[in-house]
Design brief:
alpha/beta; Rossmann fold; Dihydrodipicolinate Reductase, domain 2; seven-stranded parallel beta sheet; 10 helices; elongated; binds nicotinamide-adenine-dinucleotide
Length: about 270
């Protein structure tokens, strides 16, 4: 059995992850960690997630929780990731990171620690979205810059970062398909007298509201036709199942960063 510790266990994704770990035959919930101010510390993590009792108390001590664990799954907050991965590396524990919005400095810490432990890091763990990344690149290659590309994403009102990590990854796939650097062609929203749309621009637009779990659309707008690729997640279980699948997959891998494209054979 793969012994899994979840950090961010008290959050929206944390609960879905506990359910997914409990449901999967080859994984077991070994630890559940959240912040010291979480009012549920000490309570059974399985019960908190709406599952049967797991005899794992929610704790704020990641170092202790990782003693003897195989994999850490991190769905927390961008600023928490560097410290979490350093602790995991100290314990020789593999890591699956779903947390988005990391700064370049935080990303660099993940990169450095991945020389010591295997890391799966993906802004979106769903099979459908990973297919969307691959299809977006292919369509961008085929249609070229004559088709204006725009990305629209929508998430629930509580989401902390924008654009979503998934939208950024779609934008990177698009730029890659056109053999351009995203930073040279990205346009984040528009306002005022913008002038004509430059050829080759990639528009990225963020909507926030309600309880939307995650919608992403890529629009390729040509003369007289529009081609759209859309993915809509209706349950956090799709991300949680992907992350737990990654947790089983990573245990015997060599240190480096992998993503869901590697796991699903789409890279
Ligand atoms: P959330 O706010 O509901 O949960 C985050 C939890 O992490 C909270 O309980 C918080 O207390 C805890 N936390 C924060 N810092 C911590 C720390 N230092 N130590 C321990 N616990 C800590 O948020 P959420 O909706 O569950 O999303 C979490 C992250 O996952 C976000 O970055 C989100 O964008 C990302 N996400 C990724 C995917 C994916 O497939 N990769 C899917 C959905 C969400």
């Amino acid at each position: 059995m793969v012994k899994v510790v979840i950090v961010g266990a008290g959050g929206r994704m944390g609960k879905a992850l506990i359910q997914a770990v409990v449901a999967k035959e080859d994984t077991v919930l070994y630890g559940a960690v959240d912040l010291p101010e979480n009012p549920n510390l000490g309570k059974d993590a399985g019960e908190l997630a709406g599952c049967e009792t797991q005899n794992v108390a929610l704790t704020d001590n990641l170092l202790n929780a990782l003693e003897g664990a195989d994999v850490l799954i991190d769905f927390t907050f961008h600023a928490a990731v560097p410290n979490n991965i350093k602790i995991a590396a100290e314990k020789h524990c593999a890591v699956v990171i779903g947390t988005t919005g990391l700064t370049p400095e935080e990303t660099e810490v993940v990169r450095k620690e991945s020389f010591k432990i295997p890391v799966v890091w993906a802004p979106n763990m769903s099979v459908g979205v990973n297919l969307l990344f691959a299809l977006t690149k292919k369509v961008a290659e085929i249609l070229g810059p004559d088709y204006d590309a725009e990305i629209v994403e929508m998430h629930h009102r509580h989401k902390q970062d924008a654009p979503s990590g998934t939208a950024m990854r779609i934008a990177e796939s698009l730029a890659e398909g056109r053999k351009r650097q995203l930073a040279d062609v990205a346009c984040y929203g528009r306002q005022g007298i913008t002038g004509e749309r430059p050829k080759g621009e990639i528009g990225i637009h963020t909507l926030r509201g309600g309880d939307v779990i995650g919608d992403h659309t890529v629009i390729f707008a040509g003369d007289s036709e529009r081609f759209e690729l859309t993915h809509k997640a209706s349950d956090r279980g799709v991300f949680a199942n992907g992350a737990v699948f990654a947790a089983s997959w990573i245990t015997d891998k060599k240190p480096r960063i992998y993503d869901m494209q590697d796991i699903l054979g789409l890279s």
